Amino acid sequence: MNTSDIFNFLKPKNELETQGTEAEPENRPRIPDELWVKCPVCKIPVLSSDLEENFKVCPKCGYHFRIAARQRIELTVDEGSFEEFDAGLMSTNVIDFPDYTRKLKNAKLNSGENESVITGIASVGGYKTVIAVMNSEFMMGSMGTVTGEKVARAFEYATENRLPVIVFTVSGGARMQEGILSLMQMAKTSGAVKYHSDAGLLYITVLTDPTTGGVTASFAMEGDIILSEPKALIAFAGPRVIEQTIRQKLPKDFQSAEFLLEKGFIDAVVPRGKLKDTLTRLLALHGAEKTDGEAADNERN
Amino acid sequence: MSAIDCVNAARSNDRPTAVDYITRIFGDSFFELHGDRRFADDKAVIGGIASLDGMPLTVIGLEKGRNLKERMERNFGSAHPEGYRKALRLMKQAEKFHRPVICFVDTSGAYCGIGAEERGQGQAIAENLMEMMTLKTPVLSILIGEGGSGGALALAVADEVWMLENAIYSVISPEGCASILWKDSTKTAEASECLKLTSKDLFKLGVIERIIREPKTVDSVMFDSLKNLIAQTFKKLNAYDTETLLERRYDRFRKF
Q1: Predicted confidence (pLDDT) per residue in B105-164, tens digit
Q2: Is residue B226 part of a domain?
Q3: CA–CA separation, A249 vs B114, rounded Å?
Q4: What CATH number is given to the structural domain containing B26?
Q5: Given this model, what pLDDT does residue A22 score?
Q6: Tens digit of each residue's pLDDT (9 = 90 or more) over B59-95
Q7: pLDDT number for residue A248
Q8: Which residues of chain A does B126 touch, with a Cβ-Cβ cutoff of 8 Å?
Q9: For chain A, what is the mean pLDDT?
Q10: What is the phi-psi region of residue B26: left when phi exceeds 0, alpha when psi lies from -120 to 50, beta otherwise?
Q11: If pLDDT is split at 50, 70 and 90, which confidence band does B181 have?
Q12: Measuring CA to CA, which of A4, A59, A218, A274 is 20 to 30 A from B119?
């Protein structure tokens, strides 16, 4: 018997604390691995059903696991209110880039999606809004022509129909495999955002881990209100690129959401569990249209 | 010329830089303006007002420097956020005084460093992209050397984009591409081919309107003909009413 066992005996049993620790006796019945997820930050195993219930946030340390775009939509919009735009739009290997066709095929298989962003219309807390959610499971959320096209169309739809836009970003940046055409998406999406903005409409961005490169340098940073999940990496150049350029180690938490908040580049860091309420409040404060057709109070006054 | 030859030519130290273009095209009429009014004067960006055959215009360039001393001062043409904000300030000023804007683009990319990130490199570029799209005055951008990704695009949301014959324009450096693709940053020749970054490729893709032929050695003939082309183009662009101008600009990028 080692010391941990003594403490186990003294303390009330807490599965989260004892499971998977070094003190675990070898003859203990094995639990299938997929039921447990080890938090990469606090290293404590979490029951995956608990994790799901907690919006995929570690109940112990608050680490926000990455979540797929579909799940993000589920967490954010009112049940059954999401209508998708352009679900069938798919990238092709436009500049005949080596291995891109295979990569696209794998990305589709891995993510179950056709592109790195899902767009559509939904209601959030009863308010009608256009929503775009990027997907880290599709080529790390990189922006290709179809990504840019879907984002631009979503903004154009919102401008035409006088609706707010909420965008959840997660991206490694522009998609190298589409060469210069992916760079052009930065200008294209920024143009669509600008016309939406000039029409006096609300755009909220929610930055999630990681948001970098060409997406940071375009629509991610163009919101009227920019929110971020805690500890998300938000960067133009990724930490590795900077370390290679300046040949020194970066300070801890450099380019974290909290760091950007301090530097004045985002409005608020909002934990995942509070995002829906926060978005609802902001939509209400901007007089967003209620889904039952009634304008919110601000609009009537 | 192969793609890697273009990359090498575009990066060559013998190549004319933005300052050369400004001097050779606008001569003494160029009056330099400094600073972003927020943080500093970024020397990687040169800007000011000049006159072209009696027409005032705003001139902005990404300047690499012509010798080692200058290159150090100019941070090798890699701008910080304050550089992009300085450029935007001058563009807004051009809009106010109804004069067209010409940008000479030559950069390996926006600077990657601690200060650049702290002061919002991504935000600065993003703002330029947005604001340039609806800048109510004609904008012409000419890629004279390297067009490195977002750092180049931040001065190239224009009504027309031209490229010198041996300039390059790319979403990522060939080195960066090679190290991601093949984990080998020396395979730049292959990567350069894949990226379709030469003026010919980009003309075919519709990303640029015009290729400026380069003589073997740069001479006044090239600058003179470029000067005429610029004057003609602004005459043409000035003829559009603002609404049409901005619609054309939006459609120009919307098509990609």
Answers
A1: 999 999 999 999 999 999 999 999 999 999 999 999 999 999 999 999 999 999 999 999
A2: yes
A3: 10
A4: 3.90.226.10
A5: 40
A6: 999 999 999 999 999 999 999 999 999 999 999 999 9
A7: 87
A8: 186, 190, 216-222
A9: 88
A10: alpha
A11: confident
A12: A274
Beta-carbon separation of A99 and B133 below 8 A:
no
H or E stretch at A275: helix A272-285
Provide the 3-class DSSP secondary structure of residue A125: coil
Q: Does B84 fall in a domain?
A: yes
What residues are paired with A256 via a beta bridge?
A233
Q: Which architecture does CATH list for A69-300?
A: Alpha-Beta Complex (3.90)
Cβ neighbours of residue B176 under 8 Å, at least 6 residues apart?
A: B185
Domain that holds residue B191: 3-243
**DSSP code at position A138:** T
* Substitution target from A96, A177, A180 for chain B, most B beta carbons within 10 A: A180
Cβ contact, residue pair A216, B126, below 8 Å: yes
The predicted model gives A205-229 an average pLDDT of: 98
The structural domains of chain A, with segments of one domain joined by +, span 31-65, 69-300
Q: Do B254 and A184 touch (CB under 8 A)?
A: no
Q: CA A80, A85, A91: angle at the middle one, nearest 5?
A: 130
Return the SS3 of A292.
Answer: coil
Residue B185 confidence class, pLDDT cut points 50, 70, 90: confident
Mean pLDDT of B172-183: 91
**What are the chain B neighbours of A234 within 8 Å (beta carbons)?**
122
Tokens for B1, please give them: 């010329």
- The yes-or-no verdict on residue A23 having pLDDT over 50 is no
Residue B38 in domain: yes
A-B C-beta contacts closer than 8 Å: 154
| Whole-number Å distance between alpha carbons of A24 and B8 | 61
Q: Which of A190, A218, A240 is the best substitution to test chain B (most B C-beta atoms within 10 A)?
A: A190
- The answer to whether B181 touches B173, Cβ cutoff 8 Å, is no
How many domains does chain B divide into?
Answer: 1
pLDDT band at B206 (very low <50, low <70, confident <90, very high): very high
Supply the ipTM of this predicted assembly: 0.97
A153, closest residue in chain B (CA to CA): B254
What's the pLDDT score for residue B218? 75
Q: What is the DSSP letter of B2?
A: -
